[in-house]
């Protein structure tokens, strides 16, 4: 999932996926190429055995200014960490931190 698409920036972080309760969670860096509306801020749940994607979730929104280059506005996920309570802690490259409830598939707040 770290493939560079088009003229996008090449210095995109590549956080290691984590496994929680038998499901792998990874960052989706090039979401626009997949029709997800933004580059960065999205995670995907995958079956670790088959690699099949189970679902995606936008962790944070990126509001693009049409007057600026899109790749300068992308905000990628820097790290994904499994917490002891089964949630995920997602940190953006700007340092913002979010908690994700993977059972309910929702962002439950900023950490």
What does this structure look like?
With 111 residues, this protein is mainly β. It has a single domain (18-61, 73-110), classed as Thrombin, subunit H (Beta Barrel), CATH 2.40.10. 0% of the residues lie in helices and 36% in strands. It has strands at 18-20, 23-27, 42-46, 53-58, 77-82, 88-92, 97-101, 106-110. It has a 4-stranded antiparallel beta sheet, with no helix packed on it. A 4-stranded antiparallel beta sheet has the order 5-6-7-8, with no helix packed on it. A hairpin with a 2-residue loop joins β1 (18-20) and β2 (23-27). The radius of gyration is 14 Å and the shape is globular. Mean pLDDT is 89; it is low at 1-6.
Characterize this entry briefly.
The protein is mainly β and 111 residues long. It is built from no helices and eight strands. Residues 1-6 have low confidence and may be disordered.
Q: What portion of the residues fall into strands of 2 or more residues? A: 35-45%
Main sheet: strand order: 1-2-3-4
The mean pLDDT is 89
The major beta sheet can be summarized as: 4 strands, antiparallel
CATH topology: Thrombin, subunit H
**Helical proportion, percent range:** under 10%
At CATH level 2, the architecture is Beta Barrel
Oligomer: single chain
Terminal CA distance? 26 Å
* Helix/sheet category: mainly beta
Number of strands: 8
CATH class: Mainly Beta
Shape from CA axes? globular
Radius of gyration: 14 Å
Count of helical stretches? 0
**What is the number of independent domains?**
1
Order of helices and strands: EEEEEEEE
Low-pLDDT residue intervals, each spanning 5 or more residues:
1-6
